[in-house]
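User: Sequence for LysR family transcriptional regulator below. Tokens please.
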Amino acid sequence: MKAPRVTLDQWRTLQAVVDHGGFAQAADALHRSQSSVSYTVARMQEQLGVPLLRIDGRKAVLTEAGNVLLRRSRHLVKQASQLEDLAHHMEQGWEAEVRLVVDAAYPSARLVRALSAFMPQSRGCRVRLREEVLSGVEEVLHEGIADLAISSFSIGGYLGTELSSVEFIAVAHPEHSLHRLGREITFQDLESQLQVVIRDSGRAQPKDVGWLGAEQRWTVGSLGTAATFVGSGLGFAWLPRHMIERELREGLLKPLQLDQGGSRHPLFYLYSSKEKALGPATQILIDLLRSFDTAPLDVPFAAPPQA
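Assistant: Structure tokens for LysR family transcriptional regulator:
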């Protein structure tokens, strides 16, 4: 890659000349001599081979090319300043990245709100979000490739912070034979039907959580696929209410009238890695995840203004 001929300091000098209205004013703002500022801009024009300024009376005015280049240079200088700020924050222990793994059943609306609130406080810290199913969250945490984890399991050896519960309800298509029984549905009724279950993404010891032992079982890779299958009349499943609210409202899915166990409310927990100490950015994100965990899911979300 060809090395740039113009330095960031030269771009900053040109910006000062334009922003402060002239060479003398820029020299005062930069605490430099006027001759030094004039030489810097003249040298830039020579290096670029493009006139950047023209003299109009006693005022230096941008040429058309200078206007385009100056506008682009502002982004360049801003990014360089942000890079220097990030290096300073890292020197003070601020993380460059926080790795978060979340069970796919946890409401994404709460994650969006927490991460949106985190962004203006992040100081350039990135978030790497990963979704897993069931024991897949625990496995990622044990492997040390996540700093934070949200799971519905009690993970041995970790002290989790209790979050809210997520309601799962047993549903099927309105025309499913289970709805035509005309009575409360029993465990024996379910055993003879096709159940759609979600594959555990864990590899070491995958679990059959929620499977009733029915002979007919279809295993799919995501909650969204399960909802699509059941909404098409293929079997029944327990699905998070927050994911199928629209289908329930529009009558595409209907809760099963079970004599027991029609809804489940597993608690979710927030865990942190034991492999390293929590940095300030991770701690801020923990506080935001806990704060927005109790936020109502039906309240419209307003994204924060971008800096």
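The mean pLDDT is 85.
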